[in-house]
Amino acid sequence: MTAQTIPAQEEGELLLESRFCAADLARIRIQVDLHTSRTLTGSRRAQFVLAVHEVMCNAVRHGGGEGTLRLFRTANSLCCQVNDKGPGFDENMIPLALPSLDAPGSRGLWLVRELTDRMDIARCAVGASITFAMGLDTT
Fold first, then answer.
1. Maximum Cα–Cα distance for the chain, whole Å?
2. Is 111 buried (19+), middle (13-18) or exposed (0-12) by CB count in 10 A?
3. Is 131 helix (H, G, I), strand (E, B) or coil?
4. How far, in Å, CA of 94 to CA of 71, rounded?
5. What is the pTM of this model?
6. Which of 119, 28, 112, 116 is nearest to 66 (CA)?
7. pLDDT tens digits for range 24-55
8. Cβ distance 6 to 131 under 8 Å?
């Protein structure tokens, strides 16, 4: 899928907001899975939860060891925003093709871009913000 820009502060119903560190990753992944069960099904649900997990792991690994997650629903999308205090980066750092297994890093964000419908990366005054979205199931 091709990533499309999504406004970092898109309006919607806040479903979950949480600060996290490495010790919180499994707990928050379970909470995200529970919230997505109402709006996404099957493989789309699994893909969204995996994308959330990858971005949170990146925040812990490269963004200062912690971050803040916001999960929200708009009229037609389920969105997640993760902010951290890392050095920041831009989308040009994400490879266009799947990196080989011996290449260092970048597979997580490549995967998020492939699994979700929209993704936006923004540098903040202190850190980075990644917002991604998946259209709601219509069934």
1. 41
2. middle
3. strand
4. 23
5. 0.84
6. 28
7. 999 999 999 999 998 999 999 999 999 999 99
8. yes
Please state, in angstroms and rounded to a whole number, the distance separating the CA atoms of residues 28 and 32. Answer: 6
- How far apart, in whole angstroms, are the C-alpha atoms of residue 24 and residue 27? 5
Q: Summarize pLDDT for 108-139 with one digit per residue, the tens.
A: 788 888 899 999 988 877 788 999 999 997 65
**Distance (Å, rounded) from C-alpha 9 to C-alpha 127?**
16
Coil/strand/helix, residue 124: strand
Number of neighbours of residue 101 by Cβ within 10 angstroms: 6
CA of residue 138 relative to chain centroid, distance: 22
User: Please, are residues 95 and 72 in contact by the beta-carbon 8 Å criterion?
Assistant: no
Query: Over 50: is that where the pLDDT of 3 sits?
Result: no
Instruction: Report the alpha-carbon distance of residue 119 to residue 113 in Å, rounded.
Output: 6
Exposure string over 114-123, b if 16+ CB within 10 A, otherwise e: ebbbbbbbbe
In whole angstroms, what separates CA 95 from the centre of its chain? 17
